[in-house]
């Protein structure tokens, strides 16, 4: 599966990438780790990434949070920080509980991820084709960093590939 790297906004690199290890984000994580201009931070929970990005913004850095749709449920309460403090929040979310999901535990959160984000004031876009990723991510990053908005790009399972149960 070809993955599109995170594009640069206004020709400046996103200085920080935070997330938990996730197969759907493996290429983005690897590229961030290889890029000397990007600090790649491994998080213990998805919600700590919101606070981490808020602090980074206060310190003059920009960043993005990578997570799986199941992690969105962990972040609902913490999204209030962005609502109250109005800092840019850019997140890229790999979808589970979506097309061809094999793990029934992923379905409940996967089916409400976008609605939950929207209820918390997060603007969302969804990519299901590789050609959609770069322009949607560029637009989301522009709106987040130029408008102090919370923006999320959802990467559908048809884009990242069907997960298979492996013993």
Sum up the structure in keywords.
167 residues; 43% helix; Rossmann fold; alpha/beta; 19% strand; 6 strands
Please sum up the structure shown.
The protein is 43% helix and 19% strand.
What would you note in describing this structure?
It is a single chain. The protein has helices at about 25-35, 45-60, 70-75, 80-85, 105-120, 130-145, 155-160; strands spanning about 15-20, 40, 65-70, 90-95, 125, 150-155. About 45% of the residues lie in helices and about 20% in strands. Helix 6 links the parallel strand 5 and strand 6 (about 150-155). It has a 6-stranded parallel beta sheet with strand order 2-1-3-4-6-5, sandwiched between helices. It has one domain (about 15-160): Thiamin diphosphate (ThDP)-binding fold, Pyr/PP domains (Rossmann fold, 3-Layer(aba) Sandwich). Residues about 1-15 have low confidence and may be disordered. The chain has about 170 residues and is of the alpha/beta class. The two termini are about 20 Å apart. Helix 2 (about 45-60) crosses helix 3, helix 2 (about 45-60) packs parallel to helix 4 (about 80-85) and helix 3 packs across helix 5. The chain contains 7 helices and 6 strands; from the N terminus they run βαβαβααβαβαβα.
